[in-house]
Write a structure and sequence with these properties.
By secondary structure, this protein is α/β, with parallel strands linked by helices. The chain has two domains: about 140 residues, 3-Layer(aba) Sandwich (Rossmann fold); about 170 residues, Dihydrodipicolinate Reductase, domain 2, CATH 3.30.360. Helix content is about 30%, strand content about 30%. The chain contains eight helices and 17 strands. Helix 2 links the parallel strand 2 and strand 3. Helix 3 packs parallel to helix 4 and helix 5 packs across helix 6. The radius of gyration is 21 Å and the shape is globular.
Length: about 325
């Protein structure tokens, strides 16, 4: 069995604990909070495998899962990679792209696995969108839209761009198989915390194969909208799709809508067939863990590797700069 150290069993780390307990790994847990260690003990982790010190079990494990506050990611990942451990770090990989690139280079130098927790890559609906785009099913892509919003308690360690918007930034990078060339953003700090709690990011991706125009992608994220939205829309000239990640199985609806040119420069909007697609209901976090264990054992590069984490942070950095300066940022 792979011996894994889980760092952090807080808000999201507790989900890591639950999933890890269902997998064939020898699990160790470190967290500075006694009440969280007690949670892990009640979940079945032996007292001898619990510690408040993140470095306590470094010599005993093969790999580390980092589910701690974002500000701690860089130092923890650097320490464990340098010690020869494989690392699965929650997103964002770091809060600075220069630090992310340093971790990527360190992992390459030490020949270690570095996986980043871009969880939507591990959803079967995402893989379908990527394959359908590559296969030309959408025709020429025109627009992408993502809404990752809803009324909830804000994260205290980052603004909403690093907390939530980065999910769909990475998803768009993944399904288009490239980063954007240009980024613009607008933000608001309604809660007065000194960090954004509403954000709108607009990205311009180079044209897909055979297209003449850039693909425009918009990501909206925030803590105020009533309800819970995890929705992605992909629009092409042959087909469009709406993917609702809140749904377990029937996540995607496709539409064969198109415009028909008429005489005199007029266009007719033709609504085509709608189909609903079914996907595996497997929890993406479970898939992430299995993929990490597989990478540790086979030494194959992860689906969400360090460079994916770096590119996502680079876009968020550009979006934050655009929001501050009021002008687009070129990433080419």
């Amino acid at each position: 069995m792979v011996k894994v150290l889980l760092l952090g069993v807080g808000r999201w780390g507790s989900n890591h604990l639950r999933v890890a307990r269902s997998l064939p790994v020898e699990l160790f847990v470190a967290d500075p909070a006694p009440e969280r260690l007690e949670l892990a003990r009640k979940a079945g982790i032996a007292q001898a495998r619990l510690s408040a010190d993140p470095l306590a079990f470094g010599a005993q494990v093969d790999a580390v899962v980092v589910a701690t506050p974002a500000q701690t990611h860089f130092n923890l990942c650097r320490s464990f990679l340098d010690a020869g451990k494989d690392v699965f770090v929650e997103k964002p990989i770091t809060l600075e792209s220069a630090q992310a690139l340093e971790l990527v280079e360190l992992a390459e130098h030490r020949r270690r696995i570095l996986q980043v927790g871009h969880i939507f890559r591990f959803d079967s609906a995402t893989q379908w969108m990527r394959d359908a785009i590559a296969g030309g099913e959408f025709g020429q892509l025109r627009l992408l839209r993502g809404c990752f919003s809803g009324f909830k308690r804000p994260r205290h360690d980052t603004g909403v761009m690093f907390a939530d918007a980065i999910h769909f930034v990475d998803l768009f990078n993944f399904i288009l198989d490239r980063p954007p060339a240009r980024v613009s953003a607008a933000t608001q700090d309604f809660l007065g915390r000194g960090m954004e709690d509403e954000a709108l990011i607009v990205m311009e991706y180079p044209p897909t194969r055979g297209a003449a125009a850039n693909v425009i992608a918009r990501v909206e994220a925030g803590y105020h909208l009533p309800g819970k939205y995890r929705e992605v829309v992909v629009v092409g000239d042959k087909m469009s799709a709406i993917c609702d990640f809140n749904v377990a199985q029937y996540k995607v609806r496709t539409f064969r809508n198109h415009h028909v040119a008429k005489a005199g420069g007029r266009f007719e909007a033709v609504e085509g067939e709608m189909h609903q697609l079914e996907f595996s209901p497997e929890e993406p976090l479970h898939t992430e863990w299995r993929a990490f264990i597989d990478s540790v054992q086979t030494r194959q590069a992860p689906l969400a590797d360090g460079m994916a984490g770096y590119e996502a942070v680079r876009v968020i950095e550009a979006a934050l700069a655009s929001a501050r300066n009021g002008c687009p940022v070129d990433l080419r």
